[in-house]
Amino acid sequence: MIIPRNMRIDFADAPLIWSRNQAFATIINAGSAAAVAFEGYLAKVMARARDELGDRNPAVTREIDLFIAQEGHHYRVHKAYNKRLYARYPKARAFEAELSETLRIQLETRSLAYNLAFSAGFENFACYMAKYQFTRGLAYFEGADRRMATLWLWHAAEEFEHRTACN
């Protein structure tokens, strides 16, 4: 079951190297830049699918609405963290902008079926990454800044919840 959780995290003084493993924190920070681009894109794709579906399947429509709500929360929380990240690493903002533009063009020029297939593939990859975070990767969160661990473990848990919404 998909349950949108409206997380509120204050990143004002969150460390940018928030894990004891600097490489892990750096890779995950790059993922936050990508998250904003992907979360917005995925919500738009699924909104188009919902509109196309109409009222033919209320249960699927409800699942799509919950998926969009979760992605919206992810977008907002990552956007808040990224303000801090980009103050220190301004080139990361360009990465987010470039990825957002690439996904915007894809959404405008490719069919809904193509974008749904792309979204399903992306969500399957995200689910795999979430599984990693809760298994072998969990050690990287030990001793980590609590706010950042909360951000990423919350996001990962919700990836499991909505793993079937795009399929």
Helix and strand topology:
Elements: H1 22-53, H2 58-88, H3 90-109, H4 112-134, H5 146-161
Helix pairs in contact: 1-2, 1-3, 1-4, 2-3, 4-5
**Considering DSSP H and I runs of 4 or more, what fraction of the residues is helical?**
over 70%
- Distance N terminus to C terminus? 15 Å
Major sheet details: none
N-to-C series of helices and strands: HHHHH
Q: Round the Cα radius of gyration to an integer and report it.
A: 16 Å
Output mean pLDDT: 93
Structural class: mainly alpha
Strand content: under 5%
Low-confidence stretches: none
Number of strands: 0
Q: How many structural domains are formed by the residues?
A: 1
Shape, per Cα inertia axes: globular
Please give the count of helices: 5
Structure description:
- The protein is built from 5 helices and no strands.
- The chain has 167 residues and is mainly alpha-helical.
- The protein has one domain (32-161).
- The chain is globular, with a radius of gyration of 16 Å.
- It starts with 21 loop residues before the first helix and ends in a 6-residue tail after the last helix.
Short structural description:
Helices cover 73% and strands 0% of the residues.
Entry keywords:
167 residues; mainly alpha
